[in-house]
Amino acid sequence: MALTLGACAVVGPNFQRPTTPGAPAYAMVGDAGAPAVRLSPDARTAGAWWLALGSPELDQTIRLALTGSPTLAEADATLRKVQDQAAATQGALGPQVDGSAGAQRERINTQAFGFTGFPSPTINLYSIGGTVSYDLDLFGGGKRRLEAAQARAQAQAARVDAAYLTLTGNVALQAVRIAALRAELDALDAVVADDQRTVDMVGKAQAIGGAAPSDLSVGRGDLARDAAMRPAVERDLALARHQLALLVGRAPADWAAPDFAQTGFTRPAELPVGLPSTLVRQRPDILAAEAELHAATADVGVATASLYPDIRLTAGLTQGTIKPENIFRYDSTGWNLAGGLTAPLFDGGRLKAGQHAAQAEARAALARYNGTVLRAFVQVSDALASLAEDDRAITALTGVQAVQESRLKDARAAYSLGGGTLLKVISAERDLAKARRDLVVAQGRRDQDLVSLLVSTATNWKPAQA
Question: What is the pTM of this model?
Answer without folding.
Answer: 0.84
